[in-house]
Every structure is written in C-alpha cells, then in structure tokens.
Amino acid sequence: MNIEGIKDTLLKIKRLMDDPSATQGERESAQEKFHLLMGKYGLSEDDIISGEKKPVQFSYKTKHEKKILLQVISMVINPEKHFRFWNLYRSRKIEVDVTPLEEAEIILYWSAYKKAFNDQLEDFVIAFIMSNDIFSKDGKKSTWDSLTEDEKKKIMRRQKMALMINKTKVPRGLLNGKG
Prior knowledge:
Helix content is 56%, strand content 11%. The chain has 179 residues and is mainly α. Strands 1-3-2 form a three-stranded antiparallel β-sheet. α1 runs antiparallel to α2 and α4 packs antiparallel against α5.
C-alpha cells in the first residue's frame, strides 16, 4: 500500500471512530483497526493528521545500497527534492525532508529491498565463483542426496545465475613465469 493509500485508509477509519451516528461497536472496531494499522506502520495519530515535513536521515553501507535507497526515496516523494548526503566516519546517510507518513513508507520499502538485495548479492557472489571455477583443490564436497530441499533450490538458483555470468579470462603467462 502506498503512502496516500495508508493515509486515506487511516483518515476514513478515524472519521468512523469520531462519527456520532456510528454504533458503539462500529466505533470500537474502527478504533481497534486504527491502532493496529498505526502500529504496523509505526505512526502516531499526529503523524496521520500532520503533513509537516522534517529532515530524516536514512543509512546505507555501499554504493549499490545508496543507488537503491535513492530510487526508493524518489519512488515515495517528488524526485526533484533536494537530497543531503552525509559520509562521516563510515556512517553514510541520505537526508531528505519528508512527512511522517512518507518516512514510514520509505522505511517499509527500504528495509524490504535492502534485505532482498543483500540476499541476492550473496547468490551472485556464489554464482560468480561457480562460473569461474574458483574452488579449493582440496575442497570438501557434499553429495546431492545429503542436501536439504532448500539447499538444493539455492544451488539450482545460483547455477542458473552462473550461466549468465561471463567467465573471467586470467592471463596465464604470469603463472608460467613469463612477463
């Protein structure tokens, strides 16, 4: 659900909570749903009503995470907004002015995409190793039958990915004492 959808839903529920023509059961049910959704998105009642923007910092670790975070921020707010970048003592942050609802939406997307990216990055590293046959000569080998179903699926996914990676050509002359 996008930020406007969350806000609209919560405002409708709030109106029902405050509606004197609604039954006591309807108001109680609306109040329960209102607090459940606010907890889910980490919002307060003031956040729903307030459209005031404040500077918020979002952290990233690598240049790839920075690129994804910028895309997420641009997806949630107008991309013409000015970003402020912080890079102090290994702490990398992007600061941007957002409403509490926009902040909640950015956090929701950022946490999901960052986890997915890092999971897939691990798959890529293993696929790169597979594609280029970078294995220990005395490496321990497992038999296919000893693996769990999840391990088998992971290996198959990584093998498919390895097929798409160009094999790196290593200059062999250096190994033969030439050059």
